[in-house]
Amino acid sequence: MSVQPALDGSIPEPPARAVDYETWLDEVWPAFVAAAATGRTFTTYEVVDQHKLPNPPNPKAHWGNLMWLLKEAGYIRTAGWACSTRPTTHHSGVRTWRGTVAARRETA
User: Fold this and answer.
1) What's the first-to-final CA gap in the chain, in angstroms?
2) Positions of the region Disordered (predicted)?
3) Is residue 69 part of a domain?
4) How many domains are there within the chain?
5) What confidence tens digit (pLDDT) does each residue in 8-25 have?
6) Which of 45, 46, 51, 71 has its CA 20 to 30 A from that of 80?
7) Is residue 5 situated within a structural domain?
8) Neighbours of 40 (CB within 10 A)
9) What is the 3-state secondary structure (H, E, C) of the chain?
10) Domain-embedded: residue 3
11) Which of 23-27, 86-90, 104-108 has the highest mean pLDDT?
């Protein structure tokens, strides 16, 4: 994987990556439950960026799996689509999420 240098020529540090899936899930889960409790619409990356969350062992699969688990647990529902703010996505479309009524009541 190639890394794009910053404008000043420095090479950015790669995002932290969790050692195993279960440890990573325990670390990031509370931030997403808190985002769901706000009732606002959000993207996965917005929560990751706001809380400086680490990447999972397999980013291509685990972020989506996390969102599916949160949806299945009753914390979030799909809200629509938006342009991603993640720097590497070139504003491609991403799913947006919103906390359920149960999540806002903290009873999910």
Assistant:
1) 39
2) 87-108
3) yes
4) 1
5) 878 776 666 666 899 999
6) 51
7) no
8) 13
9) CCCCCCCCCCCCCCCCECCCHHHHHHHHHHHHHHHHHHCCEECHHHHHHHHCCCECCCHHHHHHHHHHHHHHCCCEEEEEEEECCCHHHCCCEEEEEEECHHHHCCCC
10) no
11) 23-27
CA–CA distance, 57 with 43 (Å, rounded to integer): 20
pLDDT range class, residue 107, cuts 50, 70, 90: low
Q: What is the pLDDT of residues 10-66, one digit of tens each?
A: 877 666 666 689 999 999 999 999 999 998 999 999 999 999 999 999 888 899 999
Domain that holds residue 100: 21-104
Asked if 15 and 53 touch (Cβ cutoff 8 Å), the reply is no
Domain membership of residue 9 (yes or no) is no
What pTM does this model have?
A: 0.76
**Cα 3 from chain centroid?**
21
C-alpha–C-alpha distance, residues 31 and 74, integer Å: 15
